[in-house]
Write a structure and sequence with these properties.
Blueprint lengths: L21 E5 L7 H13 L3 E3 L10 H10 L3 E5 L16 H12 L5 E6 L5 H4 L8 E3 L4 H11 L9 H22 L7 H18 L3
Parallel strand pairs: 1-2, 1-3, 3-4, 4-5
Helix pairs in contact: 1-5, 1-6, 1-7, 2-3, 6-7
């Protein structure tokens, strides 16, 4: 099943005074993925969109229902399938959350929702998730610049078109403030609700200054 494409005549994107379009971000919550999480936040914000993630799901709500609600209320979703290895903690186990949330997205069958699949290694997804044969998969090579390059390819038809240089500027702002944001939240990594939200606020503010609407 091919990923849904935006029609050329409908260049979605933020307009002055309009509510920002939400992008559900389905990525590995792993220390090795820290740089790429910041890259996704920076890149999505550069396009004028608002990143959303399961990190902010309240404890008072059933997790699965909230995940479905987050996906359904977002215009776009990005699903990073690059973490396919076993973890190091016994019993050694692969993580299935990312393909599961991609499956939920496809299963919703929402014609107003467009989804994007990303990977780090070319053709690996043909083995790890062969049901996606025929789908355009965006290969970021596991690098920050690769994420920016592939976001530019995925959102080529949207209204705002930031450059890779502008996205990198936003990323560097996040990186330079990262330690302070962690201290403020009493956290050790960005996979924390308050840290994620603070990063999104900072990235949005930087994007408004650096990227022309």
């Amino acid at each position: 099943m091919p990923a849904q494409k935006l029609p050329p005549q409908n260049r979605r994107g933020p307009r002055p005074g309009a509510e920002k379009i939400a992008v559900f971000l389905n990525v590995p919550y792993a220390q090795r993925f820290e740089n790429l999480l910041l890259a996704y936040i920076a890149g999505i914000s550069a396009f004028g969109f608002a990143p959303r993630a399961t990190l902010v799901i309240p404890f008072s709500q059933r997790r699965l229902e909230r995940i479905i609600s987050l996906i359904a209320s977002s215009h776009y979703s990005i699903h990073d399938m690059s973490r396919v290895e076993l973890d190091r903690t016994a019993p050694r186990t692969p993580r299935f959350n990312m393909p599961f949330e991609l499956g939920l997205t496809v299963g919703l069958g929402n014609s107003k929702h467009s989804w994007v699949v990303c990977e780090a290694v070319r053709r690996r997804i043909n083995k790890s998730l062969s049901d996606l044969d025929g789908t355009d998969v965006y290969i970021h090579d596991g690098t920050v610049r690769g994420v920016f390059r592939e976001l530019s390819n995925a959102f080529v038809r949207t209204h705002r078109q930031p450059s890779v240089v502008q996205m990198m500027q936003i990323y560097r702002i996040l990186r330079s403030n990262f330690a302070g944001i962690l201290r403020k939240a009493g956290a050790k990594n960005p996979f924390n609700a308050r840290v994620f939200l603070d990063l999104c606020v900072l990235a949005s503010a930087a994007a408004e200054k650096l990227v022309s609407p």
